[in-house]
User: Fold this.
Amino acid sequence: MSSPAPPPCPQPAPGGARPALTVIAGPTAVGKGTIVAELRRRHPDLFVSVSATTRAPRPGEVDGVHYRFVTDAEFDQLVEHGQMLEWALVHGRYRYGTPRGPVDAELAAGRPAVLEIDLDGARQVRRSMPGCRLVFIAPPSWEELVARLKGRGTEDAAEQERRLATARTEMAAEGEFDVTIVNDTVARTTDELETLLGLAG
Ligand code: 5GP
Assistant:
């Protein structure tokens, strides 16, 4: 009697396996939000996590679309009940976090998920989900980043200084990321991200 055939080796997915969870981070004012908004416009079905935050909505921001705007007490509850995949105090002022449930549901269904979060959050996700892919969005130059932050005009001078200090630290962390994409134009940067996510064409 011949022995049973060994089980087949798992085959890599055609084109190589893609990590299901992609984390997009980069310095403040680099334009991550704009890139992710363009990605969503091109791929309305792609799951992009909606973060919870304790900061107030800016004009035009919609609760549940741009962020889930919550009180400090509500944020405390989410953390205490283990409902945050990661969270961080950003720019030393407000808390931001990724609700765990929707991300887990997407990954369990075999669909890709995208997070746009700060450096601290990206590090936490890497620790809890080592198979994720970290993408660093970089400015074409430091001078360009400063110009973008000042040109945005949504923060006062003191807040701009705080954000520049954070940006300096964030720029130094590029080496921790798997991939860097330079944000020169929205269209080209989104093309590159699309290719990376396997959504191009
Ligand atoms: P803004 O207040 O300008 O919308 O965002 C400020 C910063 O918070 C950005 O750098 C953004 O990446 C970060 N951020 C947004 N959502 C999250 C989140 O869920 N977790 C973490 N750690 N950072 C976030």
Summary: The chain has a mean pLDDT of 90.
